[in-house]
Design a protein that fits this description.
With 403 residues, this protein is mainly alpha-helical. It folds into three domains: 48 residues, no CATH class; 94 residues, Tyrosine recombinase, N-terminal domain (DNA polymerase, domain 1), CATH 1.10.150.130; 168 residues, Intergrase catalytic core (hpI Integrase, Chain A). It has 15 helices and nine strands. The chain has a three-stranded antiparallel β-sheet, with helices on one face. Strands 4-5-9 form a three-stranded antiparallel β-sheet, with no helix packed on it. A hairpin with a 4-residue loop joins strand 4 and strand 5. It is globular, with a radius of gyration of 27 Å.
């Protein structure tokens, strides 16, 4: 609809928000009615194609664009709630510094200066790099939508990446941790085994259901992440599973895996198959004991009532296992304190050190490509390259006289 006021024309477009409410957007279209009609057609096409609704005669500010981008391209169901919350955090951090700038006037040096201010204010290099990834994605979309001709983010300078905080257990330490988890109980054993022997992420382990496990051939399908979110921000209709925590403030939801490659199956080691078989028996015992009060949602890792464990539970189990091992083995070298996610790093490192081809390690970790695995575990592959060179020396030592 075109509305004329005081010699100026506006295009008024109605659209529906994610919660079904109807809203109006007034967009300035200049003083010429024919130009206003052309703008109206362009905006209707943009709306119907799911693109952001901006005036073709006025370039938005960075704040206007980023908010529209979040609403149009990121907010569920377009992307997962976890992705939306991460991007919302990034946008909230960067807007006070560059939000007022007109989008087509945003430069690489302005972005670089904004990152420097964030760093000076105490934000970590990791968080700044996360903000950069979000801003780069948003501005790439602006290029795709013909709002920008190029992405200034690509030329911006970033703070140096922090040293990797990950720690990896060696083979002996990994075995000690696994044995300690056996002594703690069947659930603790399964939690440690899924991370240490399978390389699952915390949220992936907690999102597993019995329908994901094929006992006959030992396959485990990773189809979901279990996320803990603020209930007020969640639309239950968008998720296969929704359960409020006892406080009522938060809720468990099943999200899609981190990447498309994450939605895949892995072959389970016999040790882990045995863990899950014991766990299934335990699940059925709990189900019979509680009867109708049991939440029979088929989660593999769940409490006595059938409610899935939070991903935070993985951290507590790992810390408890390390603490108990060190207390009960005072004469042996102590296990180092590690994050729960370091079980995944340990799994990858041990496989690479056993000369497993990196493409199979990448598939086990469900990375989208082997380059990611190569970059993450470059220190391991360099170590293996040195072993390869040493092996060639041994093979040809008699002929080359190097022995």
């Amino acid at each position: 609809m075109i509305v004329g006021r005081n010699g100026h024309y506006y295009v008024v477009i109605k659209y529906k928000t994610i919660d079904g409410k109807t809203k109006k957007k007034w967009i300035s279209a200049g003083k010429n009615r024919r130009e206003a009609q052309r703008t109206e057609r362009q905006l209707f096409t943009a709306r119907d194609n799911g693109e952001p609704i901006f005036s073709r005669t006025e370039t938005p500010t960075v704040e206007q664009y980023l908010k529209e981008w979040l609403e149009t391209s990121i907010k569920p169901p377009s992307r997962s709630l976890g992705t939306y919350e991460n991007y919302l955090f990034c946008v909230d951090k960067i807007l006070p510094l560059i939000g007022h700038v007109r989008l087509d006037k945003l430069s690489a040096i302005q972005i670089t200066k904004a990152y420097k201010v964030l760093s000076t204010n105490g934000l970590s290099a990791t968080s700044i790099r996360m903000i950069h990834r979000a801003l780069r994605a948003a501005l790439n979309k602006a290029v795709t939508w013909d709002i920008l001709s190029k992405n200034p983010c690509l030329a911006a300078d970033l703070p140096a990446p922090p040293a990797s905080p990950s720690k990896v257990l060696d083979k002996g330490q990994a075995m000690a941790l696994l044995r300690q988890s056996e002594a703690m109980g069947v659930y603790e054993n399964a939690i440690i085994a899924l991370g240490l022997l399978c390389g699952l992420r915390d949220a992936e382990s907690c999102g597993l259901r019995w329908s994901d496990y094929q006992k006959e051939d030992g396959k485990l399908y990773i189809r979901h992440n279990l996320s803990e979110r603020y209930a007020k921000d969640v639309n239950p209709k968008l998720y296969e599973y929704f359960h409020r925590t006892p406080s009522g403030k938060k809720a468990f939801v099943l999200d899609k895996p981190k990447t498309e490659s994450s939605n895949n199956f892995i072959m389970l080691p016999v040790y882990v198959q045995n863990c899950l078989n014991k766990l299934h028996l335990e699940y059925n015992i709990k189900k019979m004991a509680l009867g109708r009060a049991f939440h029979d949602d088929n989660f593999i890792l769940c409490n006595d009532a059938g409610i899935p464990y939070s991903p935070h539970k993985i951290y507590y189990v790992v810390q408890k296992a390390i603490r108990q091992y060190n207390e009960t083995h005072p004469k042996l070298p102590p296990l180092p304190k590690i994050r729960a996610h370091d079980l995944r790093h340990t799994a990858a490192t041990l496989l690479l050190e056993e000369n497993i081809d990196i493409k199979y390690v990448s598939r086990q970790l469900r990375h989208s490509n082997t380059a990611i695995t190569q970059n993450l575990y470059q220190h391991v592959t360099e170590k293996m390259a040195n072993k390869t060179a040493a092996a060639m020396d041994n093979i040809f030592s008699d002929r080359t006289g190097t022995k």
